[in-house]
């Protein structure tokens, strides 16, 4: 009878594994395997979170680059107007109209520097330290450099084309923003590389985890059938033995 109970317990275990698709359901099934699976799961989860963090970092970099791009376009237009105003064919009235456009362009640059945000954090006015991107499973990672491209930082707070014009101020501002865009682009490439690595590494770890933890369904079904046949045979032999013992007892009582 104890053998039958053991067989039933084994059958229940097999049924549970088939239902879940997992070879390891408890430490009793494979203590070493369970420990390895847990470590692989921890690493995989860390990589997936890191990939998500990197994706957010790429979003920040793209926002920065877009804003810096509009600033560059505005500065190029300011430079064009500055050179045009140098032409002696224009009157002071003409230059005043050009100055009005320059003022609007500079105001837009100043607004962009203050208004460019991610999650209510300003990215371009110098108020924020470099942003840490936790790309690795242990929380380490890279730093996304923040910029200060306000009009004051660019040296354009009081820029005017009404008097003597110094194009070096505009050229320096364009160069500063170009350098910022270059750094941002390089960081974007690094972040994309980190994202792709994290996703690939996570998939490899999940594959390793699956090979250790997941159940070989065909083999498990075959094992279930084998144990079922064995249990049926044992039960049949027990019934036969009970019948034989009953016959012997009848012979002695006749």
How does the SSE layout of this entry go?
Blueprint: H1 2-20, H2 31-85, H3 92-115, E1 117-118, E2 121-122, E3 131-133, E4 142-144, H4 151-154, H5 167-213, H6 217-253
Antiparallel strand pairs: 1-2, 3-4
Helix pairs in contact: 1-6, 2-3, 2-5
What order do the strands of the largest sheet run in, or round the barrel if closed?
1-2
Low-confidence regions? 1-5
Percent range for β-strand residues: under 5%
What value does the Rg take, in angstroms?
37 Å
Summarize the amount of helix as a percent range. Answer: over 70%
Number of strands: 4
Largest sheet: 2 strands, antiparallel
The gross shape turns out to be rod-shaped
Describe this structure as you would to a colleague.
This protein is mostly helical and 254 residues long. 73% of the residues lie in helices and 4% in strands. The chain is built from six helices and four strands; from the N terminus they run αααββββααα. It has helices at 2-20, 31-85, 92-115, 151-154, 167-213, 217-253, and strands spanning 117-118, 121-122, 131-133, 142-144. The strands form two sheets. The protein has a two-stranded antiparallel sheet with strand order 1-2. A two-stranded antiparallel ribbon has the order 3-4. A hairpin with an 8-residue loop joins strand 3 and strand 4. The model is unreliable at 1-5 (pLDDT under 50).
What keyword list fits this structure?
254 residues, mainly alpha, two-stranded antiparallel sheet, 6 helices, 73% helix
């Amino acid at each position: 009878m104890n053998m039958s109970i053991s067989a039933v317990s084994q059958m229940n275990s097999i049924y549970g594994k088939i239902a879940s698709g997992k070879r390891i359901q408890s430490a009793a099934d494979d203590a070493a395997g369970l420990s390895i699976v847990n470590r692989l799961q921890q690493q995989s989860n860390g990589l997936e979170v890191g990939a998500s963090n990197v994706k957010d970092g790429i979003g920040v970099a793209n926002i920065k680059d877009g804003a810096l791009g509009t600033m560059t376009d505005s500065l190029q237009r300011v430079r064009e107007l500055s050179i045009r105003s140098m032409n002696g064919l224009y009157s002071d009235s003409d230059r005043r109209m050009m100055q009005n456009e320059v003022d609007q362009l500079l105001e837009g640059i100043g607004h962009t520097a203050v208004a460019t945000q991610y999650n209510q954090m300003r990215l371009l006015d110098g108020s924020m330290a470099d942003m840490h991107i936790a790309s690795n499973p242990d929380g380490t990672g890279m730093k996304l450099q923040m910029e200060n491209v306000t009009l004051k930082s660019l040296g354009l707070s009081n820029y005017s084309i009404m008097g003597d014009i110094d194009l070096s101020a505009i050229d320096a501002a364009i160069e500063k923003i170009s350098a910022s865009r270059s750094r941002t682009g390089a960081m974007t490439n690094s972040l994309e590389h980190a994202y792709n690595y994290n996703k690939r590494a996570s998939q490899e770890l999940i594959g390793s985890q699956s090979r250790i933890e997941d159940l070989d369904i065909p083999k498990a079904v075959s094992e279930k059938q084998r144990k079922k046949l064995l249990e049926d045979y044992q039960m049949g032999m027990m019934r036969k033995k009970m019948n034989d013992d009953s016959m012997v007892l009848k012979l002695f009582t006749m």
